[in-house]
């Protein structure tokens, strides 16, 4: 747990380091290597590896493990795209939001009970869990771009002289990042959801006719619908970039809610958990 | 004893002279080598750099003469064929530490018309490089001008003096870049060919905007301006369709009513299928209906909005000025310590040699008088004599190296030479810049 706490502290440090230059008037935020984030990722990975060694498998025994894996993927995707795509000022929005979510989820889920007895097969696990989490990581980056876009647009339209707008990326770049992140995340998310649905039906018949009575399935499907709308509307070019940004953020909020719903109302489908043969507990 | 070397700058700038005087005294770039050579040929002048920009003409000399200003006036008079009476009152002269501080301020953009502008640093560098190529700089100016460039860098790094945009045109470019990222594939429409509109158009063109349309009541004027920016002129009645094609619209007509109504912008945005539209209304009275700013995807700025950003930048830079001047002051003292070391080094060497020679003579006499002294005692006596000489030298050398002011330093130097009987002129410690006639053949 110490590794997890250190990682969280470093994420908070990275959030402060990324947000502080945005608040200083004058010079544009310089693109520096996110050393604190790299350190946080290392400790975060250490936590996941420790858990993997403890459970002799993929660290998804508890909801905290599962969320930790998702958060690590999200942070890694952002760090990997930050340099090459010169995300610049988005960092000042992404890292504070990320830290808030990570700490909130950590506090909410720490010490909670392990997930239901796993029944998912190894192949289905990989086909379901990894694409879903990778899709969410893409959506998280798109959400950061969307939030930054809303701030930037407000600043530009508000004609504020303090020139914070000069330090944030351009609207065109933010639109592009959001578009690419959703376009890459959506197919992965779709594959993951489809794999999960097929598994649920084949192995347990858990979905059946009353699939709509499962809150987790409903929340997951709602998120998928929103992102499907974003992708299609953007491809058709029929929606302003601002509305697309709002929709992207809404989709991610639904995704976050899915975690909450899955935790509060497990429903009939088992949550993401280690399958027999992967976990030592089985 | 030879005259000590003095760094002087004589010149004029936008602070002291109107543009007519500045342009009359400007050195054409092609004739700068000639001007440098003629100044360098003057007796007593050891090093010369001429800095000539649109806002200043300055001649920096390092000379063993206090008449640097007279020499520069002579150069300006002869070179431009003008009477000194015509420009004399616009000239300023700085000497020694003031001249060094002045160069550091100039190089850092602290003396510029637009406070903190970076272009002047490149101009100082170019002036120094040209003088170096013409071999009119020696050890002092090599050090001084290289130091000025590092001061400029330090000032910019440690402060916000060059942050933000300080002109309406550059603010428009920056805003456009915050909306569209790059301007290379963007279309600009200029309505009316007013002066500020033209400036903004040129700024956008310089930033990469390639496709330009100009609409003006006088078609020929629109055509001429459009050609200059590689664009095309359009008729006024074609405005609605061109509004939808343009990403950036600059309006600067003197029409007393709105030329672009909210409905026009609404139609254009609809035709653009959600793509942003940047409207710059720099006309007074305004040409674009202000309520158009409420439309999603429309970014409307008027001249006051742009001016507000400019003023914010300038006031922010002014707030940084005292911090920058403190840096300049610190670096000036650092340079002066080095220059002072250059000047006093021969005297210190002579002083040491003189006292050690005295010590050697007295020790030799003493030891000859007592030849039976044990070796240990002889060594101890020699060490005591060394310590004594070093203690005697300590305070004078300290006083020579750390003068409280330039004049005081020269007084201390002269006093030291007189008190210790060093009346012979000190030799030059470093090689001098060769005269024009001494230049190597290419």
The number of helical elements of chain A comes to: 8
Structural class of chain A: mainly alpha
* Approximate helicity band of chain B: 40-55%
Shape descriptor of chain B reads: elongated
The biggest beta sheet of chain B reads:
6 strands, parallel
| Count of discrete domains of chain A | 1
What share of residues are in beta strands of chain A? under 5%
List low-pLDDT spans of chain B. Answer: 425-442
Mean pLDDT of chain A: 77
Main beta sheet of chain A, described?
Answer: none
> From the alpha-carbon coordinates, what is the Rg of chain B to the nearest angstrom?
32 Å
What is the count of DSSP helices of chain B, taking H or I runs of 4+ residues?
14
Distance between the termini of chain A: 24 Å
Oligomer: heterodimer
Please give the share of residues in helix of chain A.
over 70%
Give a description of the structure.
The complex is a heterodimer of chains A (282) and B (442). Chain A is mostly helical and 282 residues long. Chain A has one domain. Chain A is 71% helix and 0% strand. Chain A is built from 8 helices and no strands. In chain A, helix 3 packs across helix 5 and helix 5 packs across helix 8. The longest helix of chain A is centred in the middle third of the chain and has 37 residues. By secondary structure, chain B is α/β, with parallel strands linked by helices. In chain B, helix 4 crosses helix 6, helix 5 packs antiparallel against helix 6 and helix 12 packs parallel to helix 14. Chain B is elongated and about 115 Å long. The C terminus of chain B is likely disordered. In chain B, the strands form 2 sheets. A 6-stranded parallel beta sheet of chain B has the order 7-6-5-8-9-10, with helices on both faces. Chain B has a 4-stranded antiparallel beta sheet with strand order 2-3-1-4, with helices on both faces. In chain B, strand 8, helix 11 and strand 9 form a beta-alpha-beta unit. Chain B has 3 domains: 153 residues, Glutamyl-tRNA reductase, N-terminal domain (Beta Polymerase, domain 2); 143 residues, Rossmann fold (3-Layer(aba) Sandwich), CATH 3.40.50; 75 residues, no CATH class. The interface between A and B is medium-sized, with 26 and 26 residues.
């Amino acid at each position: 747990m110490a590794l997890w706490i250190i990682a969280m502290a470093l994420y908070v440090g990275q959030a402060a380091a990324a947000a502080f230059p945005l608040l200083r008037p004058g010079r544009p935020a310089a693109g520096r290597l996110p050393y604190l984030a790299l350190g946080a990722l290392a400790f975060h990975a250490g936590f996941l590896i420790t858990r993997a060694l403890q459970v002799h498998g993929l660290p998804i025994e508890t909801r905290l493990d599962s969320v930790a894996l998702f958060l690590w993927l999200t942070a890694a995707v952002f760090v990997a795209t930050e340099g090459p795509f010169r995300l610049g000022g988005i960092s000042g929005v992404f890292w504070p939001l990320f830290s808030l979510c990570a700490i909130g989820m950590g506090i909410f889920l720490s010490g909670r009970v392990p997930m239901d007895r796993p029944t998912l097969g190894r192949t289905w696990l990989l086909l379901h869990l990894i694409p879903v989490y990778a899709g969410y990581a893409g959506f998280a980056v798109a959400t950061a771009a969307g939030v930054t876009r809303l701030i930037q647009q407000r600043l530009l339209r508000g004609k504020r002289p303090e020139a914070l707008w000069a330090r944030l990326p351009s609207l065109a770049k933010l639109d592009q990042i959001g578009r690419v992140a959703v376009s890459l995340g959506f197919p992965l998310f779709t594959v993951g959801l489809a794999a999960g649905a097929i598994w649920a039906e084949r192995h347990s018949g858990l979905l059946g006719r009353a699939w709509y009575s499962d809150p987790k399935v409903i929340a997951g499907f709602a998120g998928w619908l929103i992102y499907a709308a974003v992708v299609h509307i953007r491809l058709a070019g029929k929606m302003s970039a601002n509305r697309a940004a709002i929709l992207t953020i809404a989709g991610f909020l639904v995704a976050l809610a899915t975690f909450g719903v899955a935790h509060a109302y497990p429903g009939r489908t088992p949550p993401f958990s280690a399958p027999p043969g992967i976990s030592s507990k089985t | 004893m030879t005259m000590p070397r003095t760094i002087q700058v004589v010149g004029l700038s936008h602070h002291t002279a109107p543009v007519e005087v500045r342009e009359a005294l400007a050195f054409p770039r092609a004739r700068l080598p000639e001007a440098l050579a003629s100044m360098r040929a003057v007796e007593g002048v050891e090093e010369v750099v001429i800095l000539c920009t649109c806002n200043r003409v300055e001649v920096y000399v390092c000379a063993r003469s206090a008449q640097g200003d007279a020499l520069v006036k002579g150069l300006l008079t002869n070179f431009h064929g003008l009477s000194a009476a015509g420009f004399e009152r616009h000239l300023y002269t700085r000497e020694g530490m003031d001249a060094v501080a002045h160069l550091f301020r100039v190089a850092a953009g602290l003396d510029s018309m637009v406070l903190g502008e970076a272009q002047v640093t490149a101009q100082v560098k170019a002036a120094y490089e040209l003088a170096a190529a013409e071999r009119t700089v020696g050890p002092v100016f090599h050090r001084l001008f290289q130091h000025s460039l590092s001061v400029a860098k330090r000032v910019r790094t440690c402060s916000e003096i060059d942050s933000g945009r300080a002109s309406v045109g550059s603010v428009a470019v920056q805003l456009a870049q915050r909306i569209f990222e790059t301007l290379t594939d963007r279309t600009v429409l200029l309505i009316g060919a007013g002066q500020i509109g033209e400036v903004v158009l040129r700024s956008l063109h310089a930033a990469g905007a390639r496709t330009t349309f100009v609409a003006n009541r006088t078609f020929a004027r629109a055509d001429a301006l459009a050609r200059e920016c590689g664009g095309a002129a359009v008729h006024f009645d074609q405005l609605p369709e061109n509004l939808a094609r343009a990403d950036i619209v600059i309006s600067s007509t003197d029409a007393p009513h709105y030329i672009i109504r909210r409905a026009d912008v609404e139609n254009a945005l609809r035709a653009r299928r959600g793509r942003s539209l940047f409207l710059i209304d720099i006309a007074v009275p305004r040409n674009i209906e202000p309520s158009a700013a409420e439309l999603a995807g429309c970014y409307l700025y008027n001249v006051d909005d742009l001016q507000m950003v400019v003023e914010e930048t300038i006031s922010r830079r002014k707030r940084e000025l005292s911090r920058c001047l403190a840096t300049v002051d610190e670096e000036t003292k650092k340079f002066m310590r080095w220059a002072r070391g250059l000047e006093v080094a021969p005297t210190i060497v002579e002083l040491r040699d003189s006292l050690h020679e005295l010590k050697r003579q007295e020790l030799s006499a003493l030891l000859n008088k007592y030849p039976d002294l044990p070796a240990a005692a002889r060594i101890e006596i020699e060490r005591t004599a060394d310590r004594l000489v070093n203690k005697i030298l300590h305070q004078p050398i300290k006083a020579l190296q750390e003068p409280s002011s330039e004049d005081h330093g020269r007084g201390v130097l002269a006093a030291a030479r007189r008190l210790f009987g060093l009346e012979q002129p000190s030799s030059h410690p470093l090689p001098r810049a060769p005269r024009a006639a001494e230049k190597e053949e290419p």
